[in-house]
Write a structure and sequence with these properties.
It contains 14 helices and 13 strands. The chain is an alpha/beta fold. The mean pLDDT is about 90.
């Protein structure tokens, strides 16, 4: 199959956050199954993205990139910012959409005019605003149909309140933008049933176009159980993501006090990029905040237990899949288990809902090495069976072939 793969970040197995890693798994899985893939993406200042683009070009992949790194000219930098701000003010599109789609349309036009493709796979909703030929089957991947409320933006200081108001205003734009974006595509692929239900609820006319397909990950080496540090819990995440901030607050303020009553030596490490003041201030007895770690490897290696008490947002949680793939036991909520429950048997996760229940489940695993390590072993096997690049690519083929057959064909 000849696939035009349009991604919002450069595929990178070592990238920051979930998207570069899942794009890498998608690309490698499709290539291993002998599909012809043309990649179109952009990159800016995010660590490692330019290097990942260079590596893909050096590999011989048919790849095309827009370089959005800041110009050395201050005048040009301010000109770009002013142009993007004007587009945001006049378009009613979210800021991430305005920035994420900038500069890509000429590449889309050139590639679709000069190459033959069987399907266009559009990976992330900012790219939905680009124009694709109406005679080409298109599949949009929606990473998070359920979003945290705009009111979750919090200003810790008086000087931050204007920025908070702008962020909340921008966040509300997604409510209008997303349904319009979904309607432009033949099929909409999402990662879990919760997001599928959200799309059907918001846009019932799209129910026939939605396909659930949990994502994959290039499986890293399994970690040695002997490297665990007793009593250590780990929460990882990109703290620009509102559900991660909420989970961190819940963990530090309610779950950890309940857990330390059961296991006094328990300690939590909150590790992730760009923690705001509200997360940094959570540091205290039994809680450490690790800001912008250069690598998550040492954090995961030291963790006796990975905890993901997410209670807002949508999509799958890469933090859960990465821990499972690394052979670490995971405690999460029913929401955090989304995307892992559709394979005919319960996933090897400890799933609990309330703070006391999560604390009890964590305590039970921290104090039982045999049970914890058996759960971790099962988690690794589950990731290999259902979430490897090859397993995911096989499911992707089914979705792409369905789009080619005309199922769910969009009007116009």
């Amino acid at each position: 199959m000849r696939i035009l793969l349009v991604t919002s970040m450069v595929p990178d197995p070592g990238g920051i956050g979930a998207m570069p890693k899942l794009f890498h798994a998608q690309l490698s899985g499709l290539l291993d199954r002998d599909h012809e893939v043309t990649l179109l993406a952009s990159f800016g200042e995010d660590r490692g993205q330019a290097e990942a683009a260079e590596a893909l070009l050096a590999s011989g992949l048919d790849a095309h990139f827009v370089d959005r790194r800041r110009s050395s000219s201050a005048l040009r930098r301010w000109g770009v910012r002013a142009d993007l701000a004007a587009r945001w003010a006049t378009s009613r599109r979210p800021w991430r959409v305005v920035c994420g789609s900038a500069g890509l349309q000429p590449l889309v036009d050139r590639l679709t005019a000069t190459r033959k493709f069987d399907v266009v796979a559009v990976e992330d909703n900012p790219l939905a605003v680009l124009r694709y030929p109406t005679d080409l089957p298109t599949v949009l991947t929606e990473h998070e149909a359920v979003r945290a409320p705009a009111g979750e933006w919090r200003a810790g200081r008086l000087a931050e309140r204007p920025q908070q108001a702008l962020r909340a205003r921008d966040w509300r734009r997604w409510d209008r933008f997303l349904p319009a974006a979904w309607r432009r595509f033949d099929l909409v692929q999402i990662y879990c049933e919760g997001d599928a239900a959200a799309i059907r609820r918001v846009s019932p006319e799209l129910a026939g176009r939605v396909r659930v397909n949990p994502y994959g990950l290039a499986l890293p080496p399994a970690l040695d159980p002997a490297a665990e540090q007793p009593g250590t819990l780990l929460f990882t995440g990109t703290f620009a993501h509102l559900p991660n901030r909420d989970a961190a607050r819940w963990l530090a303020r309610e779950i950890m006090p309940a857990l330390r009553k059961r296991v006094p030596e328990a300690r939590l490490r909150l590790a992730g990029s760009a923690p705001p003041r509200e997360v940094l201030d959570l540091a205290g007895p039994g809680v450490e905040v690790v800001a912008d770690p250069p690598s998550m490897e040492p954090e995961l290696e030291a963790a006796a237990l990975v905890i993901a008490p997410v209670r807002s947002g949508g999509g799958m949680r890469m933090k859960v899949l990465e821990a499972m793939a690394r052979r670490r036991a995971v405690v999460t909520t029913p929401l955090g288990a989304e995307g892992f429950t559709g394979f005919g048997s319960p996933p090897p996760l400890a799933i609990a809902a309330g703070a006391e229940e999560i604390a009890a489940a964590s305590a039970a695993l921290l104090t039982d090495d045999t049970r914890r390590r058996e759960l971790a072993r099962q988690a690794r096997e589950f990731a290999e069976r259902h979430h490897s690049p090859g397993a995911w690519a096989a499911r992707l083929e089914t979705v792409y072939e369905e789009a080619r057959s005309g199922a769910g064909r969009r009007a116009g």
